[in-house]
Write a structure and sequence with these properties.
Layout lengths: L6 E4 L2 E4 L10 H5 L2 E3 L2 E5 L5 E4 L1 H15 L7 H14 L5 E9 L13 E8 L7 H6 L1 E5 L20 H13 L4 E5 L5 E4 L3 E6 L2 E4 L9 H12 L3 E4 L4 H5 L3 E6 L3 E8 L2 E2 L7 H14 L10 E3 L1
Parallel strand pairs: 8-9, 8-15, 12-13
Antiparallel strand pairs: 1-2, 1-7, 3-6, 4-5, 4-6, 5-17, 6-7, 9-10, 11-12, 11-14, 14-15, 15-16
This protein binds pyridoxal-5'-phosphate.
Length: 305
Amino acid sequence: MALTGKKIWLDGEMMDWDKAKVHVLTHALHYGTGYFEGIRCYALEDGRSAVFRLDEHVRRLFDSGKILGFPLPRSFEEIKKAILDVVRANGLKECYIRPIAFVGLGEMGLYAPDNPIHIAIAAWSWGAYLGDDGIKNGIRAKVSSYTRHHVNVMMTKSKVSGNYINSVLAKSEVKNAGYDEAIMLDPDGYVAEASGENIFIARGRRIKTTPLTSILAGITRDSVVELARDKGYEVVEERFTRDELYTADEAFFTGTAAELTPIREVDNRKVGERCPGPATHELQSAFFDIIKGKDKKYSRWLAYV
Ligand SMILES: *Cc1c(COP(=O)(O)O)cnc(C)c1O
């Protein structure tokens, strides 16, 4: 079923959903010269709605443009306001928000410094990315045969459209083989991340996640690292291997779309004794309390709509 909604913000104008179109010779459509964000807005228990870590997402959007050399021709405050406006204009209490900046119509060659840079912002209802059962009982992951980007082949800190072919290949490969999500190894063979999520493992109260070197610096990852440390877990950012993943007590993915999803199985091996394990369960429920506005200690992460 095609995605639908009421309004989309495009280049400063709030327009009807169906009117937000681009030309087929848009540069980004041919070469992947776009960059985007994935943001979530949650309904709070007091009836309000709030966007989770809005400033950090907008900052990363600007950073992506800077890394690529296609800076966003808009101000930080304007983008922030437009995101909140889109949520309101669509009348959504809870939604996924997708800002995307892209190189538009002009020169068709690869070097097109004078082409316009457009930005669109859309929002829609999107439930658990890896399924409600996945969030509750964990998912089955498989290590993909596709390697994650080398840091000097693609810019891994930028959420650039072109990067996602690597993710699409990996995700399709494992989905077609009957698994839920792909885990990708870096060019040295260490665990990097999933197709659109960061990865954590736990042994007792010691938690490990991959260092930022070759991965997308997830905002959910950052939130969970801080949260786990606040709860007294030891958290280390260190490379780890595929066999360490097999022998972990617990493993989970983090991401705006996937939120905090437990990993039940890797390469047909059961992870730990039960899923979700105690650390995953504690962090997951603490995370859900924060996004629902139930834990005032982290209310600085919420931008009210
Ligand atoms: C977006 C993304 C993540 C998760 O980042 P969040 O800020 O937590 O949403 C992780 N890995 C990749 C490759 C991503 O694109």
